[in-house]
Amino acid sequence: MDAPTRVLKAIDHEESDRVPAFESAFSNNTIRSHYGSPADAGAAGGLATIQNLPNRDQILKWAMSNRELLTKGLVDNFAFLRRVRIDIGLTYITHQPRMLVEDRLIDEFGRIMKLEPDKQDGTLILGYHGGHLRSFEDYEHWERPDPQDPMRLAALLAGNDAQQQMKNEVLSVPAFGGMMEPSWEPFGLEVFSRILARPKQAKKVFDDLGTLALELTKIMAENGAKVVLIWDDYGFKNGLFMSPSNYRTYVFPWLRRMCDAAHKRDCRLLLHSDGDLTAIFEDIINCGVDALNPIDPTTANPKYDIFALHEKYGHRLTFVGNISPVMLSVGTISQIKEYAKRLIRELAPGGGYIFSSGHSINPAITVDRWEAVMQVRDQYGSYPIRVPK
To answer: What does each C-alpha distance from 104 to 107, 185, 283 come to in angstroms?
Structure first.
């Protein structure tokens, strides 16, 4: 069975040949090198390469719109994902760099980002370093991301091309920003909090982002995407970034429209959100979200538990997660294997589950721990599920 069929069956709550696997990010040069992939492959490496070149802004714009160049990079990354037995490869549609300033870049939303090497294995990590916009007035003068920019469609089509070249052994999923992360990060939390206290300003920001995300959902689905991923962290370890009522006012009306637009075009919506989402979990499901990643296992709330949530909502939502990155970094092989086996045993029967970490694969995760995880999926992840206790 090919990866698109395997993933879609899981999201549609059907059993396929085996449980599909996914990672939202694979920032680990050691594991990449072990599986024959160049260090810092992908966007981070590309940015590092052109950072000191003359005319770098023009080079960036050309590179982000060049379908052939994008396809080559995606094929290289998808080939690595195939070697580590992951079924989904992401194609980035938004968060594109707009300008490079010294050792930092400012992306199209207005976030300041910086490439920094990890101290452990040198992996380049693109980290958030604050907002470029200092006021609502700055926002009004900032050029909004255009959903019709040719680079969006070029990225999507490059992902489709890469998937075909990989003979459907990896499903290409376009990924773009939603309404929450791109609302506060361009300002920083302090400035954003002042905007949030002014409902007209807040509504303007959220509606601009909602319009962008809705149009991108339609464009992606109309051009062959069967799944779209929305980057949109709603919370952190101790709770939500804003009150549930604000999510219901500003965010969820747009999320519902995005889900409706995707479903009308035979497309599914996968939401990526870290943090404790307990207070809005049912709202997310009621919007029509098909799958949720990663069901963050490191929150301060012990009740935010994937097994309890699956027991209550498993018939309505596909769960994507959630082996703790802390466990993967410092836990024993035995602990990792037992937890991975439990995920498959309790969540996978009947479909509706995609195997994944609880965030991403970071530089602290060793090769033997990664292989232990995937050995469990290989050994116990075939249907029908039979995992001993």
So the answer is: 10, 15, 37
- Maximum Cα–Cα distance for the chain, whole Å? 60
What distance in Å separates the CA atoms of residue 361 and residue 343, rounded to the nearest whole number? 18
In the predicted model, what is the mean pLDDT of residues 354-358? 97
Q: Is residue 332 within 8 Å of 295, Cβ to Cβ?
A: no
C-alpha separations of 264 from 31, 222, 288, 330 in Å: 39, 10, 12, 44
Q: How far apart are CA 206 and CA 172, in angstroms?
A: 28
Residue 101, pLDDT score: 80
**Which are the contacts of 298, defined by CB distance < 8 A and separation ≥ 6?**
237, 324, 325, 326, 358, 359
Integer Cα distance of 111 and 280 in angstroms: 26
pLDDT at 274: 96
Is the Cβ–Cβ distance between 359 and 320 less than 8 Å? Answer: no
Torsion of CA 43, 48, 53, 57, to 10 degrees: 40
The SS3 assignment for 228 reads strand
pLDDT at 44 > cutoff 70? no
The chain-wide mean pLDDT, for the chain, equals 94
Give the strands of the sheet with 124-131, arranged side by side. 97-101, 104-107, 111-117, 124-131
CATH topology of domain 3-380: TIM Barrel (3.20.20)
Distance (Å, whole) CA 74 – CA 41: 10
Element (H, E) at 105: strand 104-107
Poorest-pLDDT segment among 37-46, 65-74, 296-305, 350-359: 37-46
CA 2 to each of CA 20, 50, 90, 171, 351: distance values in angstroms, whole numbers, following the listed order: 10, 36, 17, 9, 16
Say whether 30 sits in a helix, a strand or coil. helix
Report whether pLDDT(42) > 80. Answer: no
Do residues 228 and 175 make contact, with C-beta atoms less than 8 angstroms apart? yes
The whole-number pLDDT of residue 48 equals 54
User: Which amino acid, 129?
Assistant: H
Tokens representing residue 164 in the block: 């075909």
Instruction: Mention every residue, 6+ apart, whose C-beta is less than 8 A from residue 364.
Output: 120, 325, 328, 329, 330
The residues spanned by each domain of the chain are 3-380
- Whether the per-residue pLDDT at 65 is higher than 90: the answer is no
